[in-house]
Amino acid sequence: MTQIGLIRCEKNENRCPLTSCLRSLKTTTQGFAGYEAAELVGVFTCRCPGSGVADMAKILKRKGAEAIHFCTCTFAHKEEGAWVEGRGFCKHLENLLQQIAGEADIPCVQGTAHLPASYTPITYGAAPAGQRSA
Ligand code: SF4
Predict the structure, then answer these.
(1) 6, 48, 75, 98, best to mutate for ligand 1 pocket (most atoms within 8 Å of CB)
(2) pLDDT digit string, tens, across residues 67-111
(3) Could you tell me the domains of the chain?
(4) Cβ pair 130, 37 in contact under 8 A
């Protein structure tokens, strides 16, 4: 059972209750498909310009998180009912995920639910524990 911390974007916090993210985590599908089983440790909201994300990840790690996932809406958008890579909420997501992997020393995965077609989740840092072997 891999313990997961989620970080969502403030730009979506009043519109999205994370239903699809939580469902994908529970069923280990989409961005969580690599895990045998996954359990949510907690959720934080990133606030622009994202300077607190490494500290949030450190707290989630202390609570037991073995990997952090950033929500798909940060790097993808919905177009005619389908999620498409690009034009997500965050312009410097790569930098945030690198900060987390480096400063909090925990794998940070870009993606949760409704992944764009042909997108494979990118992991910053070492591969999370508990992933299925290929
Ligand atoms: S820094 Fe990026 S992920 Fe964080 S709140 Fe701003 S746009 Fe969202």
Answers:
(1) 48
(2) 999 999 999 999 999 999 999 999 999 999 999 999 999 999 999
(3) 2-124 (3.40.50)
(4) yes
